[in-house]
Write a structure and sequence with these properties.
By secondary structure, this protein is mainly α. The protein contains 4 helices and no strands.
């Protein structure tokens, strides 16, 4: 459980609502770290740029990326 309460979807600005929509579409729900980072919109924007940059990288095949994500999630006990 986070020590900081996240921002509810209705309380954020336009960019926060867009980030929540994209996260929900990609993951299936809005995860707590995104809700907490939404307190600082510039940090949320930087995080979004980093995620989009990692998704757009073509050095490694998409199948290998997915396999690495699953392996790392298994190692750290991530639920999704």
């Amino acid at each position: 459980m986070a020590r900081i309460a996240g921002i509810a979807p209705g309380n954020g600005g336009l960019f926060v609502r867009l980030a929540y929509f994209m996260t929900k579409r990609k993951v299936g729900r809005v995860v707590t770290p995104i809700k907490i980072v939404a307190h600082h919109p510039r940090l949320l924007r930087a995080l979004a740029h980093m995620e989009l940059g990692q998704d757009a990288a073509r050095t490694v095949s998409p199948q290998l990326k997915a396999l690495a994500q699953v392996k790392v999630a298994t190692l750290i006990g991530c639920p999704f």
